[in-house]
Amino acid sequence: MKQIFKLSVGFLMIAMAFTSCNNSKSSKSNSALNSNAAEKVYVAPGEYDEFYAFISGGFSGQLSVYGLPSGRLFKVIPVFSQDPEKAYGYNEETKPMLNTSHGFIPWDDSHHPDISQTGGKLDGRYVYINANNTPRIAKIDLTTFETTEIIEIPNSAGNHSSSFVTENTEYVVAGTRFSVPIPQRDMPIKDYKGNFKGSLSFLKVNPENGEMSIKFQLLMPGFDYDLSHPGRGKSHGWFFFTTYNTEEANSLLEVNASQNDKDFIAAINWKKIEEYVNNGGGTKIPSEYAHNLYSDENHTATSTMMHEVLQVKPSDVPGAIFLLPTPKSPHGCDVDPTGEYIVGNGKLSANLTVHSFTKMLNAIENKKFAGEAYGIPILKFEDVLAGVVEQPGLGPLHTEFDGKGNAYTSFFISSEVVKWKLGTWEVLDRKPTFYSIGHLMIPGGNSANPFGKYLLAMNKITKDRYLPTGPEVTQSAQLFDISGDKMELLLDFPTIGEPHYAAGIPANLITANSKKLYKLEDNKHPYAAKSDADTKVTRNGNEVHIQMTMIRSHFSPDNIEGVKVGDKVYFHVTNLEQDYDVPHGIAMIGANTSELLIMPGQTETFVWEPKQVGVWPFYCTDFCSALHQEMQGYVRVSPSSSDIKLSWSLGDDF
Amino acid sequence: MKTMLKLFSLLCISLLISCGGKEDKKKESFSYEKKATTTQKTAPEIKVTASKKINLTDKGIGPITSVDLGSEINQAMVTQGQGIYNKMCTACHRPNKKFIGPAQAGIMERRTPEWIMNMILNPEVMIQKDPLAKELLAEFNGAPMANQNLTQEEARAVLEYFRTLK
Asked: Which of A513, A535, A557 is the last residue before a domain boundary?
């Protein structure tokens, strides 16, 4: 009996120890999560998410596509970096996409995706996104979710205050972060001040097909241009850029670029400059840059080198550019859905500064200037100020809007999202993020019509949030429900690369237009084999072109002889399938490139330079059918001196 | 374990032997239940393969419930159908010989027009549910008929072309 008693006491103690442990754990999570959070992000198997989130991959150079509220990853769209999985930048068709005036560049740092708009509302046609390092803007077509255009931005460096669209997608802007000598030249770095310039490029968008062309480049003073947003509604026709390093320091910016009490938001009347340019204004300056276009017709990209841009100096168009003093190195430059308020997120300031567009116009009309910088009028801070959100947090970076009169600002240093009210500037709510939030996103947050249901926080640091994976751990996104008075944390999910910035959109604005396959009859690839009758192998000197087809579950031809060491063998492979979701892949042993992953109706090409005599196999890399393992073939490689004629076959059919 | 070892050494020995016999090129190095021998064995029981079976009642499963063939062959449709067949079907079919899939010659004597069109337009369901299509899938090594997303009008034209294949 005694023993039983002892035992039960022991059990009780152990049980208590465990329960108390559990309690402390659950009380911790309760503080962050309400009990129905899981329900709110649960998208049942086979069901669709309500929103798409296009999240840039930062230093991965790509653009990821997630569903909200589930946080499920659907696709990583290769944009500025090679992707061996999809052969982007490896196959002959897409290599030209990564061509620049510096030659082929396999990587970049992708930052600020923005979705095209019509009438101030998201139209779901294209996503534009900037490459920071070697300045470029890309267009992603949302019918195919593929990168279909990349244009290089000359005279720019650290292309950061980009790639935001105006309310009818008239323009995509690309602003330099680093000022540089324009044109580039050999000069002492210490002579930066007054000699370097910051270029803000306005890319005209063709309303028919979304294609970009550099309409003009504005040569601004040698500041750093950090972020930008378009005016909308009443402020449509204007564009706003945050600046820092108005000190024009060229070294130890950490200290030297934080000296001025106020930097500026540059307000640019692009309509006025456009008019000036349309009337023949501006100066054509020699500038080399690549313009790369991908065509869904021939499944091939072309790269064209351009040789000049039109440049405009602020002094050329008086009354088009003004500087709004804004405290302490502002980062985000955000315009509310009505177009009235321009928020400067002064990242070293204790307060958030909000300017009024109406007040700005009045001050301009009354010519109340506090001074000028390189000929550009500086407005008086007090004259343009709409209000200040007092001490909401530390390190404000970016503000988005819910369309219900509220604003949400991310605070990097204090690692939180703060909700505040436009007009009264009072703080309504704050929630911690885990950890160190950079940008945040509300679907449609950069438009006249936000969808204020969810807010996505993108965090730089996760530390203890996930299972450890060695020194390098994932970065993350966190989803908040913002439909109520108080924000509610619903979900953490890991992301690719650095989730730098995002654009979100209701799924129904995209799904209906999403392409299912490429029509074989529309395939205009010069080496397409659109039926078995078109398959062939031809030789031109040491170049061998194989025009091959693939369908469940064979290649045609699948036996090829007459290839020799020293040949350059082009595999042009067409997927003959005309059904949804039947891609095939192909890989060749020893080929110094990636596989191809070919969608139905598409033709892609890889090059193989056989170095060894033998019989070498190739096979399908995408599990396509029950007979996928049978989808294989051989190429016989003979010595370079061999006189074996080219021949090819499939079964005994040729 | 011991038996495993024995088996293994046996295998090694047999491999060595086969190596030795390499010079004898004409001799088949490997033979195991070849199809030819099995058919010979079962010759008395004549089994009709699915591709040879005649079934003029099964209309298949799919959008097509009735086809009016008309008494005359429509030559314009034949031309159109042959073009579509050459583009969309020849990756796996030849009119007059077994390829990845069965030959189409004489198909009008073996199948209903509805079955043929449903096989073209609705192959995913056909190979899972239609008894004849299921048998065909087995006969052709599990290579499924691909849906090439033809319109009904295109499938009808292909059918007209089949009427000319005897």
From this structure: A513
CB contact under 8 A, B91 and A627: no
Q: What is the CATH number of the domain that holds A626?
A: 2.60.40.420
Is residue B79 domain-resident?
A: yes
Least confident of A471-475, A492-496, B7-11: B7-11
What interface predicted TM-score (ipTM) does this complex get? 0.72
Q: Per-residue DSSP letters for A423-467?
A: TT--EEEEEE-SS-EEEEE-TTTTSSS--TTEEEEEES--TTSS-
Q: Could you tell me which residues come within 8 angstroms of residue A617 by beta carbon, excluding any fewer than 6 positions away? A: A589, A632, A633, A634, A635
Number of domains, chain B: 1
- Tens digit of each residue's pLDDT (9 = 90 or more) over A44-56: 999 999 999 999 9
Tell me if B149 and A627 make a contact (CB, 8 A cut-off). Answer: no
Instruction: Identify the domain boundary among A494, A513, A532.
Output: A513
For the cut 50, the answer to whether the pLDDT of residue A551 exceeds it is yes
Considering the domain boundaries, does residue A40 fall inside one? no
Least confident span in A558-562, B10-14, B60-64: B10-14
How many whole angstroms separate alpha carbon A82 and alpha carbon A61? 9
Give the burial class of A354: count Cβ atoms within 10 A of its Cβ; 0-12 exposed, 13-18 middle, 19 or more buried: buried
**Domain span at residue A102?**
51-513
A578 in contact with B, Cβ within 8 Å: yes
A505 and A528 belong to one structural domain: no
- Give how many domains chain A has, as a whole number: 2
What burial class does residue A424 get, using C-beta atoms within 10 Å of its C-beta: 0-12 exposed, 13-18 middle, 19+ buried? exposed
Residues 6+ apart with CB under 8 A from B134: B127, B128
- Measure CB to CB from residue A578 to each of B86, B88, B142 and give the nearest one: B88
A631 lies within 8 A of chain B by CB: no
Nearest residue of chain A to residue B94 (CA atoms) = A653
Q: What's the pLDDT tens digit per position in A597-653?
A: 999 999 999 999 999 999 999 999 999 888 899 999 999 999 999 999 999 999 876
| Separation in Å, CA A63 to CA A81, A138, A151, A231, A293 | 10, 11, 17, 26, 18
Single pTM value for the model: 0.89
**Whether residue A495 is found in the same domain as residue A527:** no
DSSP A531: S
Identify which of A554, A429, A410 has the alpha carbon closest to the alpha carbon of residue A487. Answer: A429
